[in-house]
Structure formats: structure tokens, C-alpha cells
UniProtKB/TrEMBL annotation:
The lineage of its organism: unclassified sequences, metagenomes, ecological metagenomes. The keyword ATP-binding does not apply. The keyword Kinase applies. GO terms for molecular function: phosphorelay sensor kinase activity. InterPro entries: HATPase_C_sf (IPR036890), HATPase_dom (IPR003594), His_kinase_dom (IPR005467), HisK_dim/P_dom (IPR003661), HisK_dim/P_sf (IPR036097), Sig_transdc_His_kin-like_C (IPR004358), TCS_sensor_his_kinase (IPR050428). One of its GO terms (cellular component) is plasma membrane. Its EC number is 2.7.13.3. This is histidine kinase. It is an enzyme of class 2 (transferase).
Length: 415
């Protein structure tokens, strides 16, 4: 802003100087035209009227002679004497002496000291205004930056004092309105980190529990088997079968944990533009074949006709697969599964509706190792889907149908 002020001040000063200089030049030419028009015998008249011209027009007029080689043209000369007085002088061709061939000029000289002092005064005024303006801008910028830095420092201190045990939201009431969007975004991120840490802890605890239970079963079964004196071959086979079942359960839990690790890597996948309609249509072709083999009715209604979005295909695929696979798992034979998509304002919505038993809405099914009563899985599917949705900036909802004859899984994807 200071540079802008100086720039415009320079333009104004240059314009004032140009206008004054042009006006003084024009004024001398007007005086010359007046003399030529008023005095037919110019040389004698300006000699006799010299004092009158000085008093009335504030000019000194005279006839000067130049040699014959001088160029005949009008020129303006600006001078300054030792007393700091400024003069402007114009030489206008008058006539050429027929005998000597000498060229005569009308010389008009005017004292323009007052005009120059006016220009100097304007320059000093503009300079003073610039200095005062720059000082005001600096002071204003200082106080403005202090006002802006104060809430920023508040946010910085809040963030620097945060750790995994003290993830608190920023109090919006202590911030100016302009910082609300930033603070809300930080609070949203804090909530996501808090949930992530919570789920990570639950994942570790759940993993330990899922592995510890089959190990305890195996240990107990082996100990009981070893205590028997007369151990038959059938009892030994039964003990081994129980151990194999426990090992299978452990493998299932470990596979789910490894799947979580692979998804964490998928979070690093670069976003790319894809035609999500074509993407989903290709995926649903496989599920149609699966539905036929399981004697289930799989219906698709994918709209609009085409839509390109910027997303991470691996994470999107994981969410869609989880939704559809769950619907297949809990929907009985000869019942319906609907896969619907629609565009609503600036969101693309994917819905999977089934005719299963529904869900226990009191449970946090997105937490790790939480599963419904009749589920045979480990309980990480929806947890992984939720994690993928958060990475995409999307929202997942899961609820029972209004008629309590199934479940509606919905993915709301911003575009």
C-alpha cells in the first residue's frame, strides 16, 4: 500500500509540474503574439515601452541578433541565477537584416520564481503526506498484524499443548468471526484424530483378545487331553480338531489385521479422475453372477449416465465391496438386494439396501471387532470401511429400513 501511495503521488507531482511548465510556455507565446499584433514597429516600441511591459506583463522584451549561420526556430530556455531566481525565456524569429544577413529574434524573459516556489511547495506537501501516510500504514499494519496474530497464537498454543491424551477442541468464543472456519476445520481434524486413536487402541485390545481366546481354548483342551490316562484315538483326533478350529480363528483375525495394514497403505494412493458410473457398473457385473449362484435377486439402479470424480479407487472399492458383501451375507435366498446411486447437489450417494435381519442400532458397528449376533466375521469390515471413507472425505451411515425388513448402508461422497 505504501508503494501504491508513492506511485500515485509521483504521478500527481509529475502532472502538476507538466501542467505548470506548459502553462508558462503558452503564456510567453501569448505575450509574443500580443507584441507582434500591437506594435507594428516592434524594435522601437519594445525599447520605449520596456518598463511598461515589465510592470504590466511582468516580462523583459528585447530584440537580439544572431549570426547568419544560426538555425531559425523558436526555442525556450530555462535559467536560474545566483540568487535562486528562476527565469523562462523564449526566442522567436523576428526578421533577417537584408544588408548584414544577421538574424533577429524577439526575446521575452519572465521571472517564474513564484511558480517554481509553488512547485517546490507542492513537492514538499506531497512528500510530507507520503511520510505521514507511510507512518499511518505502518502503525495500522502493526496493530492489524497484532490483532491477527493474537488468535493465531491462541490456536498455536492450543495445538502445541495437545497430545494423544489431551485432544481438546478450540473454544470458538475466544476467536474473531474470521477465524471460525479455520478453528472449525482444526476441531474437525482433532475429532478425527481422537476417534482414530480411540479405534487404534480398541484395535490393539481387540486383536489381543481375538488371539488370546483361541489360544486359551487350545491350551485348555491340550491340558485336559494330557490329564487323561487312557487316551483313545478319537479323543486325540477331537483335541487336534479343536486346535485346528482355534488356529483357523486366529488366522481369520490375523488376516483382518493384515487387511487393515494394507488399507493404511492404500491411503497413500494418489487421487485420480475416474468415471465412477463406469467403475461401479464393472464392479456390479461380478456381484450379479454371485447373486445368481446364491439364488438372490440383485438389482442395480446406477445414475446419472456418467460422472467423473477425483478420488482414490482402491479405498472406494473397499467400501463398496464391504457394503455389498455384507448385504449378500445377511440376505436369505430368494430375497432382494438393491444397489442404487444418485447425484444430490454436490454429493454422490451410494446406497445398498437388503432384506436381511437388520442391525443392532445401539452398537457402534464401526468400532473394531464389534459384530452383530449372527455375524461370522472378525468385526473389522465396517471399521476398515469407515477408515477408508474418512480418507476420502466421505460419510458412511448404517441404519435399519423403516419397515424393519433389512438394512440401508449409505456412502455420501463429496464431488
Amino acid at each position: 500500500m505504501a508503494m501504491l501511495l508513492m506511485f500515485f503521488s509521483t504521478i500527481i507531482y509529475a502532472y502538476i509540474n507538466y501542467t505548470l511548465d506548459k502553462r508558462m510556455d503558452e503564456q510567453l507565446l501569448d505575450h509574443a503574439n500580443y507584441l507582434f499584433a500591437t506594435y507594428p514597429n516592434l524594435e522601437e516600441s519594445i525599447t520605449s515601452q520596456k518598463e511598461i511591459l515589465r510592470q504590466t506583463l511582468n516580462i523583459d522584451a528585447s530584440i537580439i541578433t544572431a549570426d547568419e549561420n544560426s538555425q531559425i526556430d523558436t526555442k525556450i530556455i530555462k535559467t536560474k541565477n545566483k540568487h535562486n531566481q528562476h527565469f523562462i525565456e523564449i526566442h522567436i524569429p523576428y526578421k533577417t537584416d537584408k544588408v548584414t544577413k544577421a538574424k533577429k529574434y524577439l526575446s521575452i524573459k519572465s521571472n517564474v520564481t513564484e511558480s517554481r516556489e509553488l512547485q517546490t511547495g507542492v513537492y514538499k506537501t506531497i512528500l510530507f503526506v507520503n511520510i505521514v501516510g507511510i507512518l499511518i500504514i505502518v502503525i495500522y499494519a502493526y496493530f492489524l498484524s497484532s490483532m491477527l496474530l493474537s488468535p493465531i497464537n491462541t490456536i498455536r498454543i492450543k495445538l502445541s499443548n495437545m497430545d494423544e491424551h489431551m485432544l481438546k477442541n478450540i473454544d470458538l468464543s475466544s476467536l474473531p468471526n474470521e477465524f471460525y472456519p479455520v478453528a472449525k476445520a482444526i476441531n474437525g481434524l482433532t475429532s478425527r484424530i481422537r476417534n482414530y486413536i480411540k479405534y487404534q487402541k480398541e484395535l490393539f485390545i481387540g486383536s489381543a483378545h481375538e488371539l488370546k481366546t483361541p489360544l486359551a481354548v487350545m491350551k485348555t483342551k491340550n491340558q485336559v487331553t494330557m490329564l487323561k490316562k487312557d487316551l483313545s484315538m478319537d479323543q486325540l483326533k477331537d483335541a487336534i480338531k479343536q486346535n485346528i478350529i482355534s488356529i483357523d480363528e486366529m488366522n481369520k483375525a490375523i488376516s483382518s489385521i493384515l487387511e487393515f495394514g494394507r488399507q493404511e497403505g492404500a491411503h497413500l494412493e494418489e487421487r485420480q479422475n475416474i468415471d465412477i458410473i463406469e467403475f461401479l457398473k464393472r464392479k456390479m457385473e461380478g456381484f450379479k453372477l454371485l447373486a445368481e449362484s446364491q439364488k438372490k435377486n440383485f438389482k442395480c439402479d446406477i445414475n446419472p449416465e456418467n460422472l467423473t470424480i477425483n478420488t482414490q479407487p482402491l479405498l472406494l472399492n473397499q467400501i463398496v465391496q464391504n457394503f455389498v458383501q455384507n448385504s449378500f451375507k445377511f440376505t436369505p435366498k430368494n430375497h432382494n438386494i438393491w444397489f442404487n446411486t444418485k447425484l444430490l447437489k454436490d454429493h454422490f450417494i451410494i446406497e445398498v439396501i437388503d432384506e436381511g435381519r437388520g442391525i443392532e442400532e445401539g452398537k457402534d458397528l464401526f468400532a473394531p471387532f464389534v459384530r452383530s449376533k449372527d455375524s461370522s466375521g472378525v468385526g473389522l469390515g465396517l471399521f476398515l470401511a469407515q477408515s477408508a471413507a474418512e480418507a476420502l472425505g466421505a460419510t458412511i451411515t448404517l441404519k435399519n429400513r423403516n419397515d424393519d425388513k433389512g438394512t440401508i448402508a449409505r456412502l455420501i461422497l463429496p464431488i
